[in-house]
Amino acid sequence: MSGDPFFSLPRYVHPREWFETVLPSLPLRLPPITIPHAITYHVMGPGGGVWSVQLVEGRLQTKEGWAERTAVQVAMTVPHLREALTGALRNRFADSLRAAGRPVALPDLTTLPIDAARMQALSTVVGTLAVDVVDRKFSDKYRYVFTFGSHMAAFDTASTTIDIDADDLVQLLLERGSPWQLLKGPRVRIKGDMDRPAEVLRALLGRQGTA
Fold it and tell me: HEC string of the chain?
């Protein structure tokens, strides 16, 4: 069992417990800054709800409900939240760390290229971006939908949909690679507005990357 509390979480953690108890207590290593914009999460289905998360002096603070000053809203079902945090995707990342001979622990994110200006830029992006993570191991797909700014959050409709292979996503996290590399990977398919993913990355990273 991992000594990192995130990787030791049981498979089912209630969304409210995750946002209000677990997330604020995790020993996350984040940039020691305050971002005035929050990320609002819409978790759909029985046991779901809406929570907003904001970075304040290097710590994540959560409140129930929608934050008026929102950079991006993320919508997902309760089962797909579980797969990301305590299920298939979390476990695949842990297995990859073990296979690489690395500690099973969350990475140090203190050098993330994030600041208030970039979150402001992200909030002005128009449209909705759906990311479908394709899990070939379990013949499944997990959907996470990003709506920018304070527009009505969407789930079933999106101006752009990206299909990303779960193994490619985990490998990117393992290597701390550029999201541009993932976007141009061989198992990535983009449907709809082809320019939207690049626009999001330029807002978030502040520059054009290279594959």
Answer: CCCCCCCCCCCCCCHHHHHHHHHHHCCCCCCCCCCCCEEEEEEECCCCEEEEEEEECCEEEEEECCCCCEEEEEEEEHHHHHHHHCCHHHHHHHHHHHHCCCCCCCCCCCCCCCCHHHHHHHHCCCCEEEEEEEECCCCEEEEEEEEECCCCCCCCCCCEEEEEEHHHHHHHHHHCCCHHHHHCCCCEEEEECCCHHHHHHHHHHCCCCCC
Output the CA angle 80-85-87, nearest 5 degrees: 70
Q: What is the pLDDT of residues 66-117, one digit of tens each?
A: 888 999 999 999 999 999 999 999 999 999 999 989 989 888 888 877 888 8
